[in-house]
Every structure is written in structure tokens, then in C-alpha cells.
TrEMBL record:
This protein's UniProt keywords: Oxidoreductase, Thiamine pyrophosphate
Location of the Transketolase-like pyrimidine-binding domain: 3-178
An example molecular function term from Gene Ontology annotations: oxidoreductase activity
Taxon lineage: Archaea, Methanobacteriati, Methanobacteriota, Stenosarchaea group, Halobacteria
Keyword Protein transport in annotation: no
Origin: domain of life: Archaea
PANTHER family noted in UniProt: PYRUVATE DEHYDROGENASE E1 COMPONENT BETA SUBUNIT (PTHR43257), PYRUVATE DEHYDROGENASE E1 COMPONENT SUBUNIT BETA (PTHR43257:SF2)
Protein name as annotated: Transketolase
Residue spans crossing the bilayer: none
One Gene Ontology biological process: sulfur compound biosynthetic process
Amino acid sequence: MNATIIDAINDALHAEMRNDDRTLVFGQDVAESGGVFRATDGLLAAFGSDRVLDTPLSEIAIVGSAVGLATHGFRPIAEIQFSGFLPPAFDQLVTNASRIRWRTRGELTAPMVVRTPYGAGVRALEHHSESLEGAYGHVPGLTVAIPSTPHDAKGMLISAIRDPDPVLFMEPKHVYRSLREDIPEGAYTEPLGEAAIRREGEDVTVVSWGAMMHKTLEAVDNLDGVDAEVIDLRTISPLDRETVTESVRKTGRCVVVHEAAKTGGFAGELVATINDEVLLYLEAPIERVTGFDIPVPLLSMEDYYVPHPPRIEEAITKTVSY
């Protein structure tokens, strides 16, 4: 099957709803219209209004309902239309979903998925372009998964739905339809908590995730004479520390790329992890290529905010030539 990320997500939802009657899909406009990006298109016709439901515009109610259903035998898949709308539901993720296993000493769990498109690049309005994955990655008990390819989108989403604990599944909407690749028919899984090495190299480790992975690969391809190893984290929490640190142990240099604001961004956690575990192998300071410490600008001004290949190339060159 030749698929975009949206196709892959839709296929994963169809596959798991066929495989498991406990799965439910709900959120704003997911049923009648098939979702704002059409990720849930066809689900209502295939599985009926008992399992595919439109909800009121209340993010805390959507995620709170998912927690209640998950603790009572269902496997809910809730959609928040844009990740910038997710903060009102942060209370449910932090207070209930992520700690229900701990609170009840394993008597109850919350096998639930919250899907949400994140990031800039489509010139949307305010609260439509945020990248707050670092904040959610700080919550113990909550898996934060971010695919960057159609193959991973399908396999990781199926893994998330089958996971016994809550997963926040953040989808890079900037590349929803701009990438295509062949993916297997039927259900398959990709592991959560394992990074993927997209390109092997010896000179420098470049770490990214989501839509920035493709800008990173473009930047690496543009550089002559630099043998870069590129790591796609895929999961922010749990973090695959071993893959990152072993790569830096080999290359001695590292650049981290993400579109979230720099201060408090997840790059800081990666820098700390590298310093904790392989500091003495570093041959240059670690570079961060990120968004700026401002709200995501509106419309065409996004182009100045989101890291683009020339900025990434400059950071890699600086690190390699240190």
C-alpha cells in the first residue's frame, strides 16, 4: 500500500477497530466529517455511531471520558483537533491518566491513546501550530510518541492502541500528505521507546523527530564531506538513551533539531543525558537548532521561526569544524 502519513493513520485505525471491539474513536468532528484532516474518514460508515462519536468542543471532557472508558475495559482513541488545544486537558493527562496505575497499585490501568496533530508549517491561526512535546514528556507514566514516516505512523499507532498505559500520539501535520512510501497491508507494530537510525555516519550525530526529521535529512544531504549519523527519536518518553549515547560515543559531536522553543525544549534533556553518560567522548559543544522563545508567528512568518536546512547545515558545520 502506497500511503501518506494520513493514509497510514487511517489504515491503522481501521485495522485495530476491526481487530478489537473494545476500541472507540471520538473527538470533535471525527465522525460525520472524518476529522479536520480526514484521518478518521470512513470509520463511522464502517463501525457505526456506537464506536465512532462526535463530541462537544471540550478537550478536558474528551480526555476525561477516555480515562473513564480506559479504566472500565475499553481502549479509547481520542482526537484533539490541534495540539494547541490540548492544554485544557493537561489536568486529565497528569492527574489521572498517567498515574492511575500507580495510584491503584496496578488494580486499574488506562490503555488509551490521545491523537493530536502538532507543529507549524501549514500557516494556521493561533493555537494551531504549537510543539509542546517537551512538556508532555515530563509527565511520568505518559508515553509521548511522534512518528515521522507513514510506515512508523501506522506501526506506532497500532502499538499505542495496544499499549496497556496511556499514549499521547503527536502527529507532524506539516508532513501529513507530503511524504509517500509503501507500507504493509494489515496490522503490524513498531516499538515505542526505540529510536531509529535514519542514516549511519562517523563525524557527527544529528538528532531530531517529527517534521524536522525531513529538514534534517535534507540538510545532511546538502553538506559535502560530512559523514553525519541521523537519529529519529520517534518517542520522546520513554527516551531511547542508549541509541543516542552510543552514537555520540562514536562520533564525538552532536546537533539536536526541534521546532519547539529553545528554552525548556526537549533538546535540553538530550544535552543533559549526553553530558551525564558520554561527556568525556565529546569533541565539541552540542549545538541546538530550534524555534525561538516566542509564540509561533502567524501565517508566512512561520518560515522565519521553523528551523530550515540552512540553519541546520550551519550548526552541523560549526560542530564538525570546532
